Amino acid sequence: MTRPSAVRAGRDEMLATAADVARTTLAQHADDVDRNAVFPTESIAALARTGLLGAALPERFGGAGLDTAALTEIGRTLGRACGSTAMIWAMHQVQVACVARHSAGSAVPEELLASLAAGGGLIASVTTELGVGGNLRESRTSCVPHGDRVTVTKETPTVSYAQTADAFLITARRGPDAAAGEQVLVLAAKDQATLENVGEWNTMGMRGTRSPGCRITVDVPAAQVLPVPFADIAARTMVPLSHILWSAVWIGIAEEAAGRAVRMLRRSRRNAQPDRGPDLRAAAIGERLGLLDGLLKLVVDGYDRLARTADGEPTTDFVIEVNNLKLAASTETVKVTETALEICGMAGYQEHTDHSVSRMLRDLYSARLMISNSRLLETNATSMLMRRYG
Ligand SMILES: Cc1cc2nc3c(=O)[nH]c(=O)nc-3n(C[C@H](O)[C@H](O)[C@H](O)COP(=O)(O)OP(=O)(O)OC[C@H]3O[C@@H](n4cnc5c(N)ncnc54)[C@H](O)[C@@H]3O)c2cc1C
What we know:
With 390 residues, this protein is of the alpha+beta class. The chain has three domains: 5-118, Orthogonal Bundle (Butyryl-Coa Dehydrogenase, subunit A, domain 1), CATH 1.10.540.10; 123-224, Butyryl-CoA Dehydrogenase, subunit A, domain 2 (Beta Barrel); 230-384, Butyryl-CoA Dehydrogenase, subunit A, domain 3 (Up-down Bundle). Helices cover 54% and strands 11% of the residues. It has helices spanning 5-36, 41-49, 68-81, 83-102, 107-118, 230-270, 280-308, 316-344, 346-349, 358-364, 373-384, and strands at 123-126, 144-146, 149-156, 167-173, 183-189, 193-196, 214-221. The strands form two sheets. A four-stranded antiparallel sheet has the order 2-3-7-6, with no helix packed on it. A three-stranded mixed sheet has the order 1-4-5, with helices on one face. Strand 2 and strand 3 form a beta hairpin. The longest helix has 41 residues, at 230-270. The radius of gyration is 21 Å and the shape is globular.
């Protein structure tokens, strides 16, 4: 399908802006953010100022309304510069997409989304829960109605940028009598939420995401409960788009490590060992990144096809592909970066040098935990029995 040239210009401009902001701001602050485990204030402000925080937000809400492929390009570009900032950007895009696509014309969430977008605010995701862990499709907590309002109190072990967020999107059971899987999404603005018992965030990687646990209590008008059941939102948007954009970020991080390794190889060829043959490890890196690139594009196409069907259920094949993307991206990017470490040697093992891949490797170890790979393997193992061959 041919895109209108005005839209194409907007898209290309946004991609160029992402490259510029990544180079001039994210890359400059990445090491400090990592070393001190601080929220990347300057980098997120730059993304807000340039409209990149609204990349996934439809134009009717004042966003850029970029297509999924463009979002993955931005995720990769930001990931190459600062993994934490890129992951915050990706998580926010997913929350925005969930509200924009599944509010079904419900005025209150739409107005809140538009005002958040206008103010450059971030929406945090509160799905993980004590006692339930990373099982997205079950909640212990529930919406408790009082008059025309509901309250939700959730004990969560991990919420990224909770202390900086302007709003929260929280999973909960529809009501106190609802089953664990009968969930809804509740959108709460910062001034409708209270955070208590905020824990520590002193982790191996993704240190700038500032994701400690806390108890969050929200008290909102019932109209801020999204009208679409969470089961549909998760299947059609939250799960596939998370896996697509997270994978794009992880691929970007690994591409940065690969770039550092290639620069190291060029340097050693120029200087010490000009006669040495090609280093086959560079080919292995290229092969792994190429396969991930292909898988990412395949899943983006499937996701866009699903979005075009008004009420279509994701097929078993699509569910398997989305999970495969996450499984592959979360582990293969680590292998790419480990190979880059071997190539860079001690210069790669040092922190904060031109050839260091330490931050990248530490950031990438979070990937297998962000919705545990064990859970996805279990789902895929079950789904494989339903798959048709021939
Ligand atoms: C950088 C980062 C940012 C995050 N940000 C957020 C956020 O903003 N909001 C949010 O809600 N969450 C967030 N999370 C949480 C994340 O998405 C996961 O849900 C969470 O890490 C899961 O925690 P867990 O590994 O302790 O729990 P679980 O997934 O419950 O896993 C616990 C253990 O059980 C095993 N296990 C679980 N299920 C199975 C199974 N079916 N088969 C076999 N073994 C199984 C796992 O392998 C693991 O050993 C973030 C995590 C990270 C690393």
